[in-house]
Specification:
33% strand; binds guanosine-5'-triphosphate; 2 domains; elongated; alpha/beta; 7 helices; OB fold (Dihydrolipoamide Acetyltransferase, E2P); 13 strands; binds magnesium ion; six-stranded mixed β-sheet; 223 residues
Length: 223
């Protein structure tokens, strides 16, 4: 039996995937979490027990620096609020709401306007920059700000959030081609009636971690 401390990088239907001591452990959470009403989340640091037969369980999660409910993520340094300039059209209401949540929780918001090859976003960039919020634009077809984004991820725990179809996964693939995250055209998403990314996953990149998360639909967040 061995006790280890690690980082939850994925949580799927009662199973937690924890990176500890350079290995990945699939763990079940003990009943104690249900009783306490705590749900371990991606980004949590957790103490786990690994039995001799290789099975592992989460004993407890360490105190959180911060926590956001949707998508459930813990201990973030930066939250990239991804919005496309076109298809889907940007909603400043959504960007502002998420920015406010991030600031209130001590997480640095960074607004990223994707698909900048489809429309001009200089006005949006200037509005957010003038408000003191870091804002950049990106296109997977002419990725000018690649280096700046990569350096913002360095040594931090970050997450990408935003509407479904804005290009969160495409952007991560563009920065780190080795990730090979699944992406899909918006028409196919609508046809299937679901999001392409279905679980939040923390990827280890350039000395930090970044979570790709399932996109939300505008109706969810405006309520
Ligand atoms: N023209 C253009 N299209 C892009 C750009 N980035 C992403 N796309 C397209 O947008 C579509 C959606 O991209 P995804 O990366 O799957 O979007 P997502 O935000 O991860 O969506 P969910 O996983 O459902 O939340 C794909 O067809 C991409 O090729 C871009 O910079 N320019
Ligand atoms: Mg995605």
């Amino acid at each position: 039996m061995e006790k280890l401390t690690g980082l939850i990088i994925k949580a799927i239907s009662g199973f937690y995937y924890i990176e500890a001591a350079d290995a990945l452990y699939e763990c079940k959470a003990r009943g104690v979490f249900r009783k306490k009403g705590i749900s371990p989340a991606v980004g949590d640091r957790a103490e786990i027990t690994v039995l001799d037969d290789g099975t592992a369980s989460v004993d407890q999660i360490l105190p959180r620096r911060n926590y956001i409910i949707r998508p459930p993520l813990a201990n973030l340094d930066r939250l990239f609020i991804v919005s496309s300039v076109s298809e889907p059209t940007p909603s400043t209401l959504i960007i502002d709401k998420i920015t406010a949540v991030a600031v209130e929780k001590g997480i640095e918001p960074v607004v990223v306007f994707t698909k900048s090859d489809l429309a001009d976003c200089s006005e949006l960039l200037s509005i957010y920059s003038r408000a003191g919020i870091k804002a950049l634009s990106y296109s997977i077809h002419s990725p000018a700000d690649k280096q700046e984004l990569i350096s913002l991820l360095e040594g931090k725990i970050s997450a990408f959030t935003g509407n479904t179809g804005v290009g969160k996964s495409s952007l991560l693939n563009s920065l780190f081609p080795e990730l090979e995250i699944e992406t899909a055209e918006i028409s196919k998403k609508l046809g299937r009636g679901r999001h392409t990314t279905r679980h939040s996953i923390l990827y280890k990149v350039g000395g930090g971690y970044v979570a790709d998360t399932p996109g939300f639909s505008t109706v969810d967040i405006e309520r």
